[in-house]
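Entry:
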Amino acid sequence: MDKDYSEWNKKKKELNSLKTRPDFHSRDIWLCHLGLNIGDEQDGLANDDFIRPVVIVRKFNSNLCSVIPLTRTVKDSPYYFQFSFIENEISSAILSQHRPIDSKRLRKKIGFISKGNFRQLTEKLKALIP
């Protein structure tokens, strides 16, 4: 599938010009402008402003954090961690897609992951990194 990066480039320019940044914390779940990426990297949804939910793993400062994209796809894999933050819905954190982002990409807080699930998620993530 060919990707048209022109709309994402327009959105990136808009995001980069933002002057304010949201207040966010580890364990928060946000809608995030992940964009249109290369190959198998997780994209934001083009028809929805290139947005995808993410869980914030670590806040480094008010400008930078590390996130893991979420999907509704459930896979029995060491690279996925299933949990629920919305009643009767399973979300999967795609651990292999863990990445740093600028907080300007964060659009709207939509929930948080429980302390117990967050502990399990971070333990599983650490196990993937030698």
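The chain has one domain: 6-128.
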